[in-house]
Amino acid sequence: MNQYPSILLGNAVDQFASLPGIGRKTALRLVLHLLRQSDKDVEAFTDALKTLKSDAHYCRICHTISDQELCPICQSHKRDKHTVCVVENVQDVMSIENTGQYHGLYHVLGGVISPMDGVGPSDLEIDSLVTRIETEEIKEVILALPTTMEGDTTNFYIYRRLQNTTLHHSTPLKISQIARGVAIGNELEYTDEITLGRSIINRIDFKV
Fold first, then answer.
1. Average per-residue pLDDT in the chain?
2. Closest by alpha carbon to 187, among 147, 154, 143?
3. In a domain, 86, yes or no
């Protein structure tokens, strides 16, 4: 017997429960909440999702989510164009921005190298990072990837790729990583802003 009194209700719960981090009890609560809202509010909710899916872009330079071809950070003349912070995902950009301690550019890889999950270097935005280093006036690359085995593997791979990169300018490329104030095994999006901010400020040279 279906555990829900309505097939429509069950179908809606299934869709919400398919989202990461959403269990069936939370999904049911969200669906019931929507049912109590006005048609106008529900329509605004669904329209926002449809518009996001159809109109949102990935910045052609840093690959974060943007309303336009270039994100506001890449367009800004106030950002430090000589520094690029390499992160795993869009959430990490938001986490670092919330610290207020970093004023350079970003590069979103879209994941980390994980052979167990079938994710290799070619599945990530690593080639585009190398191209940026070769063509832009970048003097420092900050590796701000998760302090996990996969994150460290990706750090090492990027370091090796950038070692032999031909720079657009004569200044040697500095490769640093955020200080290990971020606990081993932690994701950046779950790290408090003070700790994350200090990790950016107290970054260290990347060493193999």
1. 88
2. 147
3. yes
